[in-house]
Amino acid sequence: MSIEAATATNRFGMGAGAGDIERAGRDPRGWLLGQLEPRRTLSAEFKGLPSSTEIRAAHWHRYGEASPTLNRRLEALQAKGDAAAVEAASKDVQRMLGGYVMWATQVAHTEFAARTRHALGTDRPFEERLVRFWSNHLVVPTAKVPATILVGAYEREVIRPHAAGKFRDMLTASAKHAAMLTFLDNDTSIGPNSPFGRERKMGLNENLGREILELHTMGVDGGYTQADVIALATGLTGWSTAPAILRANTVYASALLLPQRAPDGPYAFAFYPDWHEPGPVKMLGKTYADEGVRQAETMLADLAKHPATARFLAQKFARHFVSDDPSESLVKRLADVYLAHDTSIGAMARALVESREAWTPEKRKLKQPEDFVISALRGVGAEVAALPPYPAYRFDTYRPPPGARLPSGDRVASAGGMAGGMAGGMAGGMATRDPAMADAAGEPRRRRRTATGGTTALVPSELYEELGKMGQKPFGAPGPQGWYDRVSDWSGAASLVKRIEWSAELAQSRANDLPEGPRMLDAMLGGSATAELRRAVERAATREQALTLILASAEFQRR
Amino acid sequence: MVTRRSIVQGMVAGGTLLTLAPGFAVAMTGGERRFVFIFLRGAMDGLSAVPAYGEPRFKALRGELADGSPGEGTPFDALKLDGLFALNPDLPTLHKLYGAGELTVVHAACHGYRDRSHFDAQDAFDRGTVDKSFRDGWLNRALAYLPPRKEGDLAMAIGPTPPLSMRGDVAIASWVPAEGEGLDPDTIVRLAELYRPDADLGPNFEKGFKAEAMGRAMADGGKDELTSAQARGFIKQARAAAGFLRDPAGPRVVTIDFGNWDSHASQNVRFMPGQQSAGGYQGRFAELYIALDRGIAALKEGLGPEWANTAVMVITEFGRTVRINGNRGTDHGTGGAGFLLGGAVAGGRIIADWPGLGEGKLFEDRDLLTTTDLRALCKGVLREHLSIADGALETIFPDSRAVKPLEGLIRRRA
Asked: Which residues does residue B173 pair with via DSSP β-bridges, in sequence order?
């Protein structure tokens, strides 16, 4: 059995399922390079999911309409001193708040289910790895409202179309996406000398400008200064969304709603000329004339093709696929190819596949938990249940799906609880950890699996939680730097134990339906398995134990 | 159903490699010192944690973030420390510790790193140097100077992945709250064989299964009305940390990472109208302070008599801008605040060579000027609390000769 076929599926792919190693085996490099050719059709798993503008309409409904209206009503009733009416109105406020939190959770779970099902079913796993790499590079994590609800749409709209395309295009699309603009606060960054800035005495927020330089393009050692950060942030003033919500005051209820203009349609990117700081800016020694939105577009294009950016991206890319400390020659080659092909990350991926260093039999990288879980699920042919596309959020009609879980792990007791108003207020009152309540919703507390055509599928919300315990909550990177990517970042004992225990649970859940150990080993690791692991699998007491040994082994954790 | 506990006992009885408590040898002498390092990641706003309300320009510069000035009866009415400084109103436990002489505030402080990148600053602090050629952390290097143990790890990182400060040559334990049924012991033994040759994963495999067995007993899932999982998680981790530290055979150095402090916008959002009666807090940043405060309370309570031997250092990567930004938040700055607290601490004071907030006093006209290098705090703690010799401090913090350890941080032992 060819080691290279196993390497192609594991190091560059999402792990091998039945027949994958044979398919890759005829021409492992060709199999990978073929996946860099653009395919214009959208994966079936993403059909029906709302676009970011549709999702933002719900956000607007929550913050721009429902919340101010309800709060104004509440304040008026409080002023009148009508206790009963105040109580009823308070319940509405709580229902609006809690329903939104639950809806946001539903969004995250549905997007996670779609993305995972795509990764399990795709015949282009290398392309999927590229998507996930770049998604982590220009990351928008679930850390912050309102970006939380957009992370899935962001990946579908910004990352997927460009995963093997031009970095310049991806960078610009990212900086213009509502998810990134709101995550890094540029949606309300206003030139202090712009007409609007003068009138409202509002100013610059340098967050996005800084992170573009530090994390998206040149890297922290790329040679830029604080003045360059300010310059880019200044160029980016007026890059916002339509409408923008200024989270301005001590309470959201009195958030100042900025003018509703939508040059590119409602809820999309908007450039507001009267927020834009007038005048030229100087970044990295070059002066950029004030041409409105063109000013920062030109700056981003220049940053994308800066040699420091090429180096930074090449280093990170090689580190992800090859080893924590890739050779200088590999990094240089990738950077050169990137620059020679007009910031093509597809060309960089091709150069990686064609390099010798990427094919060493020694497995120097460790799978991150989400990749590990997907490779295990592919390995055993497991399915993750599909979730229906989530509805739009309207506070007065939204009903969370029974058994839905909050990001905190708390579970919704039942949909009926929503309609009846919520005791306790806030998220804590809407969900329960109380076992009796959970049972009332018909939920056994552990390992519920739904039946799909004879075999069983995993429940997305549970898998989502398991990944959190392994240290990698889906879409939940610790910050704008994304997930760290060295072996030592993922080899910690606690995360390792979780991955091993999960492997055993997966094996247990499939115990009745397993081929012989060596056959499973061949399908998943092929010629790359060591003699020691093969012997252990042959000697396993049961097929279930053999599967646990394979999935939990250090060899399977690595790639 | 086999429980985790019975599996572990079975393993020990079976004479496998996974021996358990009381496996940690008592390597240090009685009254052992405990050290907890809490890193608030994301840059806590030092001037909102410890507002310098007595500064004439404080209100003007901070706008509505200055609502915490004492004596005005606002919801943000802060807890007074002295005529210049107060504590954030959501830090009552810390205020009590200050009054009891068990908390020291360090202000206008930062470490050697002077740019404003979170990630670089965190790494620089964790490495103990801005020199990126160092791959290990300052605390791990410090562990090498503590009396070694025959068995069990001297230090433990709480959380799924150890922070850079704890990475290095000295092996450490790590732990996160456990759930589930776990593996059968036979599979653990077989897997252990397979893991042994892997230099990165092998040692962690063994450690992980040991710690899990111990930790299971210690993390008691307290209920909390805080809405953010991170805030609740910190309290839970602090409680478990106390359990590990109190164990005669447990670790003596523990790190806890507490993230999400990056307050670019809406920093003072605190209560929802109509929510006060329900006891619900809304607002990420208020929750973080509340969780920090309750976590410290849980740590003190859980440590019991060992609190007297404990020092807890709470720091963040840098402070934030003095002025409020366009979004009622603060951007990345330089000088900030930190805490040293615990029964072993000679507290009740504020260590600050206070630069002031007057015209021309701000660093680059935006940040609180750094006048205390946090490495001086770390060095002082290592020297006085963990009895690490002066010479070693230069190895732990390379190129830091000019940074003299702070003195008088820790109570003299009777």
From this structure: B156
Determine the straight-line distance between the first and last CA of chain A, rounded to whole angstroms: 17
Tokens representing A28 are 């492992």
Task: Give the whole-angstrom CA distance, residue A295 versus residue A77.
Answer: 49
Q: Do A93 and B272 lie within an 8 Å CB cutoff?
A: yes
Q: Which residue of A has its CA nearest to B261?
A: A479
> Using the beta-carbon criterion (under 8 Å), do B161 and A470 form an inter-chain contact?
no
Q: Between A and B, how many CB-CB pairs are < 8 A?
A: 225
C-beta atoms of B160 and A492 within 8 A? yes
Contact B124, B130 (CB under 8 A): yes
The answer to whether B258 touches B246, Cβ cutoff 8 Å, is no
| Higher per-residue pLDDT: B212 or A381 | A381
Q: Where in chain B is the domain with CATH 3.40.720?
A: 33-177+224-396
Task: Collapse the DSSP code of B36 into the 3-class scheme (helix H, G, I; strand E, B; otherwise coil) and give the result.
Answer: strand
Give the model confidence (pLDDT) of A146-159 as tens digits: 788 999 999 999 99
Contacts of A427 in chain B (CB under 8 A): 227
Q: Which position has the token pair 């503008």?
A: A53
What are A32-57's pLDDT values in tens digits?
999 999 887 788 899 999 999 999 88
> For B244-273, what is each residue's pLDDT tens digit?
999 888 899 999 999 888 888 777 765 433
- Contact assignment for B182 to A501 by CB distance below 8 Å: yes
Q: What is the mean pLDDT of residues A244-253?
A: 44
Query: Cis peptide leading into A518, omega within 30 of 0?
Result: no
| CB contact (8 A) between residue A426 and residue B328 | no
* Domain B33-177+224-396 -> CATH class: alpha beta
| Beta carbons of A516 and A543 less than 8 angstroms apart | yes
Q: Which of B272, B277, B281, B290 to probe the A interface (max A CBs under 10 A)?
A: B272
